């Protein structure tokens, strides 16, 4: 079992956060106040970055803090890195304002 | 330990199962303070130095330096006046000596009359009427001596947590802010609301992109509409300056740090509000009319939002920081919470609590939230915060118009 720390903010969430750099292929524990489960990390996840804790289909909302932070642009597997390459914000895209 | 954790069936750790109380100072208008200051309130920048001299002479008095009070008009004039009056009316203040120069637009006498409506002792002094600085210092100091002695006779009494208004803010944020200290403050905010008290969420600028999520939590349609309106106004102010503050958010640094969308970035700030219903959206330095979670429209500027919340009646403010900050208020204790342990250890003289334990996996968010709640109780009872001990008397008004 790896000792890489993770943070799962809300039980509704589809992602958890790496609290240290996590290499690929390790299994990490994701803990909430009432449940605990294991996720196999598929690719390196840097400190502060997110990984999927369950499969997310294309177009599906992605939740962190129990709220929608964007939608999946492509299908995302459990343990995959979730970031700007596969998540798109749904509003207030300041970086897209011309 | 006065806190008893209550485990729900599903095992979620939740709140307190007893009514919390603290020892506070009951004021004539019924509100309760956690401090007992005599405030020398200069309504004009020209009187701030004189006010400062008096606080050096008379123990138990506080004041603040500012650059306002003249050549202001319209809503900008009103907002500055509301801030002065709110500072004087804050229940942490026993009595007020309002100090004017004499010819300023924010007349000391008008501010004094407004504050006196809450029934606390108020005196007004003018530098021009007293024939200059030195006579005025003597006059204000003599009044202050009497007022401080009277204040010292007030006894603390047992009060409910429902009397508390707790301000929340973050400043000098880092990659841990949205992961440790801010969610912990959110859990504390839920506990304050559960106790029947009031929690203030502020810094409108930092909520851009999360407004729909906060609007979804609004008590009714008009609250939801105001949530959208204050965000729109904040955006428009920046556009009038020729800048779109949403451009470049999340910034390249944010993206490198793992933030993928503006919603996610803003949620990191909004998480300080916990999960309860949004009862109302109020203007800067306005007093909440509802208990529960309240959003005050303030800028992201640390000192200006702190001042707005204290003028709105907050007796205690929770302040999270990743980089560390000395910030404090002349009249309200500010409890500063670090997002990471290395900064807490480096800046122990400024920081009161460490939420970095969440990042290290040593404590859960709700455990730290409970620890913050215990600190609120201790500080309300009289424990001094680091910013109070270091005389960090910051004050800044959110100006919404030019000086003429």
UniProtKB/TrEMBL annotation, chain A:
Name this polypeptide is given: D-galactarate dehydratase
Keywords assigned: Lyase
Organism (species): Oceanobacillus piezotolerans
Domain SAF, chain residue ranges per copy: 13-88
Gene3D superfamilies: 2.30.130.110
Any one Gene Ontology BP term: D-galacturonate catabolic process
InterPro entries per the UniProt record, alphabetical: SAF, SAF_UxaA/GarD, UxaA_altronate/galactarate_dh
Domain of life: Bacteria
SMART domains: SAF (SM00858)
GO molecular function: lyase activity
């Amino acid at each position: 079992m790896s000792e890489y720390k993770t943070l799962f903010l809300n039980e509704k969430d589809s992602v958890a956060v790496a609290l240290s750099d996590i290499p690929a292929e390790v299994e990490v524990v994701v803990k909430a106040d009432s449940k605990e489960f294991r996720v196999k990390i598929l690719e390196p996840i840097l400190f502060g970055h997110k990984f999927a804790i369950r499969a997310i289909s294309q177009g599906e909302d992605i939740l962190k803090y129990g709220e929608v932070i964007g939608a999946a642009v492509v299908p995302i597997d459990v343990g995959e890195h979730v970031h700007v390459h596969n998540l798109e914000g749904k509003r207030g895209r300041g970086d897209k304002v011309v | 330990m006065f806190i008893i954790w209550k485990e729900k069936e599903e095992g979620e750790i939740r709140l307190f199962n007893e009514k919390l109380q603290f020892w506070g100072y009951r004021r004539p208008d019924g509100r309760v303070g956690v401090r007992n200051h005599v405030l020398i309130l200069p309504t004009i920048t020209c009187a701030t130095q004189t006010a400062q001299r008096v606080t050096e002479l008379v123990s138990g008095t506080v004041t603040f330096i500012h650059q306002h009070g003249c050549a202001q008009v319209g809503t900008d004039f009103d907002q500055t006046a509301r801030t002065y009056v709110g500072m004087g009316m804050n229940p942490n203040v026993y009595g007020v000596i309002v100090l004017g120069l004499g010819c300023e637009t924010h007349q000391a006498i008008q501010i004094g009359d407004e504050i006196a409506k809450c029934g606390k002792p108020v005196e007004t002094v003018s530098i021009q009427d007293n024939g200059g600085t030195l006579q005025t210092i003597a006059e204000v100091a003599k009044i202050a001596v009497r007022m401080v002695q009277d204040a010292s006779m007030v006894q603390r009494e047992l009060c409910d947590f429902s009397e508390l208004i707790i301000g929340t803010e973050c400043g000098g944020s880092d990659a841990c802010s949205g992961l440790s200290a801010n969610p912990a403050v959110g859990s504390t905010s839920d506990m304050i609301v559960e106790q029947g008290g009031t929690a203030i969420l502020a810094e409108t600028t930092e909520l851009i992109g999360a407004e729909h999520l906060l609007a979804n939590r609004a008590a009714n349609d008009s609250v939801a509409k105001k949530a959208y309106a204050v965000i729109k106004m904040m955006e428009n102010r920046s556009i009038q300056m020729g800048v779109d503050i949403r451009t470049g958010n999340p910034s390249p640094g944010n993206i490198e740090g793992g933030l993928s969308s503006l919603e996610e970035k803003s949620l990191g700030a909004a998480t300080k509000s916990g999960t309860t219903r949004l009862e109302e959206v109020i203007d800067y330095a306005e007093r909440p009319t509802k208990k529960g979670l309240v959003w005050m429209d303030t800028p992201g500027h640390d000192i200006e939002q702190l001042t707005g919340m204290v003028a709105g009646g907050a007796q205690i403010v929770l302040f999270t920081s990743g980089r560390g900050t000395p910030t404090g208020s002349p009249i309200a204790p500010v409890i500063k919470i670090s997002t990471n342990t290395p900064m807490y250890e480096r800046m122990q003289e400024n920081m009161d609590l460490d939420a970095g334990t969440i990042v290290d996996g040593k404590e859960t968010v709700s455990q730290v939230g409970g620890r913050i709640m215990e600190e609120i109780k201790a500080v309300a009872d009289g424990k001094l915060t680091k910013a109070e001990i270091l005389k960090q008397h910051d004050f800044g008004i959110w100006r919404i118009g030019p000086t003429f």
